[in-house]
Amino acid sequence: METIYIAFLGFGTVASGTYQVLKQQEEKIATSMACQVQVKKALLRNRGNYVKTAHHDFELVDSLDAILTDESITIVVEAMGGVDFAKDCIEAALKAGKHVVTANKILMAQNGEELTNLAQSQGLALYYEAAVAGGIPILESLRTSFRAEGLHSLSGIINGTSNYILSEMTDQGLSFEEALQAAKDKGFAETDPTNDIDGLDAARKLAILCRLAFGMTIPLDKMAIRGIDHVTSEDIKNTSTLGYLIKPLATAILDDDGALSVQVGPSLVPKNHQLATVTGPMNAIYTRGWASGEVMFYGPGTGALPTGNMVVADILKIVDALVHQEHIPALSRYHVPLNLSAADREIFANFYHFKLLDRDKGLFKLTALFEKYGASLNQLTPIGRHHVLAISQAMTWQDSKELIAEIENIDGISIDRIYPILGQ
Ligand SMILES: NC(=O)c1ccc[n+]([C@@H]2O[C@H](COP(=O)([O-])OP(=O)(O)OC[C@H]3O[C@@H](n4cnc5c(N)ncnc54)[C@H](OP(=O)(O)O)[C@@H]3O)[C@@H](O)[C@H]2O)c1
């Protein structure tokens, strides 16, 4: 039986999960692929530590060349993270004729197009299923099952740390700081969780998803990105009163003219929506399509084995093509020019928490003002004598901006909080 050799760059959480799946499922892989897959080498920068702690049956090397010049190695798995060195390694591996699998979301969000072009020009694979929603096969589903689908929208809970924090605030009544500490204690947040909390991690994954789902490469500076750190226990309680949960959403909505609006940040989801059931560190991607209707992909977003399983799936896709001497399928050949919605076309409904010096007079003024913009205020709910919660009808982003500016100029009325509501 033929053996296909692979090499790891880095051997941490993802690589060790990948190795474990390959070892434990060795027989199933050999039977179903008619071929064996073996790890031959791993590039490590700290060989000494590793030798003392882990069992392995592959060679540990400390130079990339030891992998690139080894002609028996067909697939390189980049599992180090970071940008510059990982990019150099992937480029060098592709130029040396090796197929590449990576879980590196930062790199694939930033340089995915360029690296994919290089791989395609070499007739090689560059797969990165584990980079988005770790254990959920979303990229492959978009590539294959949704290839002909015209998706209207995609909404993802794709950062487990922020979902865990907001879930704990909702279910356990914890403050943001207490929920963050709980996430750290349980290993759902890194020591420095900045990019999880500020929305950047989800934005990177959304950029990758949009490339496959809508064929557009969206620079991160063109996305509206909000963090979850300003969400308070009071917001959770107030939005719940109106029948909503606050979820860390990454959303892309395509309008009828083919323009995409993208945003990342805490948003409201009706309590009876499928995304409301996605709690703790779990991830989900909910799509609405012309032909498929509503579909939700759900699963773990991190973890050695779930992520390793997706890396193995990418490896086996390459192995399959090699064994059957078939062309290596590109992850996507669908590209359209970047077309982002202008602010006067994006439409959102919002949750508002108003503070009113005189409730009755204030409400009268607010209702008239919203009507001027063609939107009514619904579910008006007084909280004490000076606070009112409400849901506005959907209106354009531009109109909401102007309306908010007008409200800010009215004496005795202020907006305490606004959250967008999951769009259609
Ligand atoms: N963890 C997850 O659940 C998960 C899920 C989805 C995607 N990802 C992505 O997968 C990638 C790897 O994540 P991970 O969690 O496995 O990281 P990790 O546990 O920190 O492992 C990274 C490994 O790469 C090695 N490494 C880093 N820089 C290196 C260099 N310059 N030369 C050689 N080796 C180097 C590290 O060595 P040292 O031990 O010496 O530091 C370590 O062995 C990242 O891009 C991450 O975003 C992770």
From TrEMBL:
Give the signal peptide, or none: none
What InterPro entries does the record point to? Asp/hSer_DH_NAD-bd, HDH, HDH_cat, HDH_CS, NAD(P)-bd_dom_sf
GO biological-process terms attached to the record: methionine biosynthetic process; threonine biosynthetic process
| Catalytic activity as recorded in UniProt | L-homoserine + NADP(+) = L-aspartate 4-semialdehyde + NADPH + H(+)
The pathway this protein participates in, as annotated, is: Amino-acid biosynthesis; L-methionine biosynthesis via de novo pathway; L-homoserine from L-aspartate: step 3/3; Amino-acid biosynthesis; L-threonine biosynthesis; L-threonine from L-aspartate: step 3/5
- Start and end of every Homoserine dehydrogenase catalytic domain? 137-316
Binding-site residues for L-homoserine, renumbered to this chain: 190
Give an example GO molecular function: homoserine dehydrogenase activity
On the tree of life, the source organism's domain of life is Bacteria
Active-site annotation = 205 (proton donor)
Residues in Aspartate/homoserine dehydrogenase NAD-binding domain copies: 10-129
* Annotated keywords: Amino-acid biosynthesis, Methionine biosynthesis, NADP, Oxidoreductase, Sodium, Threonine biosynthesis
Residues that hold NADPH according to the record: 105
Q: In the Enzyme Commission scheme, what number(s) does this protein have?
A: 1.1.1.3
The record's similarity note reads: Belongs to the homoserine dehydrogenase family.
Name of the protein this chain belongs to? Homoserine dehydrogenase
The organism encoding this protein is: Aerococcus kribbianus
Q: What is the lineage of its organism?
A: Bacteria, Bacillati, Bacillota, Bacilli, Lactobacillales
